[in-house]
Structure formats: structure tokens, C-alpha cells
Amino acid sequence: MTRILFVCHGNICRSPMAEFCMKDLIRKAGLEDDFEIASAALHTDEIGNPVYPPARRELAAHGIACAGKTARLATRGDYGAWDLIVGMDSENRHDMHRLFRDDPDGKCSLLLDWTGRPRDVADPWFTGDFGETWRDVQAGCTAMLQALRR
Questions:
Q1: Any idea where the domains of the chain sit in the sequence?
Q2: Exactly one of 24, 89, 123, 136 is catalytic; which is it?
Q3: From CA 146, how far away is CA 132, in angstroms rounded?
Q4: Among residues 8, 66, 108, 141, which one is catalytic?
Q5: Does the CA dihedral 53-142-132-41 come out positive or negative?
Q6: Does position 80 have pLDDT exceeding 90, yes or no?
Q7: What CATH number belongs to 2-149?
Q8: Distance between CA atoms of 16 and 89, rounded to whole angstroms?
Q9: Continuous segment of H or E residues that includes residue 108
Q10: How far is CA 46 from CA 24, 49, 119, 132, in A?
Q11: Residue 14 falls in the annotated catalytic set
């Protein structure tokens, strides 16, 4: 089983979008028994809050529900519990390396590093464009799943 933890600043927009996008792709591929997927925050700003309403609406527009998801904080112990820890932007990469002591096992990456166009996932908190974020997340999750299936 491959265990993937998606992370972002607050765990209310990008990382839950990635969590539920990946769960949907895995379900459609019939691979639910092969993966465990979750998401977490790298900062305490939103702990306990549900997925941000515009992010929920964007997921729902693609037939994906995220009911019951609330933001939780990533911990140093997550490093041993997950096979891959996937951030959304370069600030997340910095925070992951600080939290996980420079990633000694090479578990940390950024989502769009899995694609042919590595860059930061658009942050809808600042852009207001949840559709752009969805496209980035979907591209990253699709590429990641393809790579992991090889």
C-alpha cells in the first residue's frame, strides 16, 4: 500500500482538493486497496475548520464530495507514517524540510513536480481562481498516479 499525505499552508483549499481529487482518481481506477490518502496543514491558522466553501464548490462541480473533512496539523510523526508527503508550493517545501528535518528519506515533493511542468500550484486564497487551482491539482494528481502505477 502506498500512503500519500498532501500538505499546504492551512489544509482548507489546495491540499484537501488534492486529497479528494486523488481519492476520486484512485476509486475510478479501482485501486482503493492500494492507496491511503489524506491531507494536513503546515500552519495552525485553520486547524479544525472545514474545507473552504469555494474549494468545496469546485470539487462538487467535478462530482467530488469532501464532507466531514476538517483541517489538521501535520506533525513530525507523519514523516514515518506516510510514504510520500506532497506540498503545493515552494513555501510548503521549506516548511516540510523544517518539520521533517530536511527529508532524509526523500519522501517530500511538490505536486506539480510530478508533471512535465514543475511549478507552484496556484493558491486560490490569493488568486480567487479555484478553477485554475483545480486544473493544477488534477494535472498533478493524474501525473502522480500514472508514475506510481508504473
A1: 2-149
A2: 123
A3: 21
A4: 8
A5: positive
A6: yes
A7: 3.40.50.2300
A8: 14
A9: strand 108-110
A10: 24, 6, 25, 22
A11: yes
> Which residue do the cell numbers 500500500 mark?
1
Q: Catalytic residue at 8?
A: yes
Give the model confidence (pLDDT) of 37-78 as tens digits. Answer: 999 999 999 999 999 999 999 999 999 999 999 999 999 999
Give me the pLDDT at residue 54, please. 98
Residue in 100, 89, 77 with CA at minimum distance from that of residue 124: 89
User: Which tens digits make up the pLDDT trace of 5-43?
Assistant: 999 999 999 999 999 999 999 999 999 999 999 999 999
Write out pLDDT tens, residues 92-146: 999 999 999 999 999 999 999 999 999 999 999 999 999 999 999 999 999 999 9
Say how far apart CA 79 and CA 37 lie, in whole Å. 14
Choose the catalytic residue: 14, 24, 66, 89. 14
Active site residue 123: yes
pTM comes to 0.98
